[in-house]
Design brief:
Layout lengths: L2 H21 L7 H8 L3 H12 L3 H18 L5 H7 L5 H12 L3 H9 L23 E5 L2 E7 L7 H9 L7 E9 L9 E8 L11 E5 L2 E9 L5 H12 L5 E3 L4 E5 L12 E10 L4
Antiparallel strand pairs: 1-6, 2-4, 2-5, 3-4, 3-8, 6-9, 7-9, 8-9
Helix pairs in contact: 1-2, 5-6
Length: 288
Amino acid sequence: MNTLRSDQNYRERVARVVAAIVADPMAEHRLENLARLAHFSPYHFHRVYSSIAGETVAATIRRVRLTLASRLLEGVRQSITRVALSVGYDSPQAFTRAFSQFAGQSPRAFQEQMHDLIFDAEGPSIGDVENIEPSTSVRVVDRPAQRAYAIRHCGPLSTISHTHRRLRRHPNAGGASEWLGASFGDPEDTAEFRYYAAAVPREPWLSADVDIEMLDIPGGRYALHRLAGSYTRINAAMNALYSRWLPGSGYEPDDRPTLEHYLNSPREATQLELRTDLLIPIRSATAR
């Protein structure tokens, strides 16, 4: 087996482990059982997993459980203590410390922000955003068509960060002018949904590996919301855009990909300092 095929084989086996953790975050997930699932020796599994996933098994389990906690905090308002117990923490204090490190803010602050995420129901026109709070503004913008180098994400959505990390490690990645995430289709439709980590180059890359493909991102009109803070807020903010802003905006979504434009990264900014433009492709609504 050549090196590239061997690397892909390892990633697929590790992806099975991640999928098992995501499917049942609160299970015990003993190391030997996960190693058996991936067909690795328990003695070497932890090291192999860390090299492929970029984090330890324990870190993945903790991150997936805290992601579950963020979804619980987004939903019907419930006590921090109940959420903490639901994701395996013995005390709200321990949960608050872990969640704050994960999301860049306390569970209470996260919960309040998600419940207060209400967008302007009028749907502002291009440039007409002066009277909208910066934290909740939606702008309508036009973007040009772009060509990007991309890696298609395989595996659970909770491991998308691994795909972005692989792309940023590419030898030519330093020449990127923009870092994007591109979602094609409905995330709930696992058979048809596609997600890409993408880099828009300043100059053509001299070489690429078998995982890199060219991705054409159509130009056109987008609704843009600048999200401040942790990437854990992206899903909730997108849902709010679709459910609260879009229906009264005078626009409807079209078939182009939804985009995430990463303006900085955790390597250079704290969780609270992260900024991400969320872009929904839109067209004028048609009467039915």
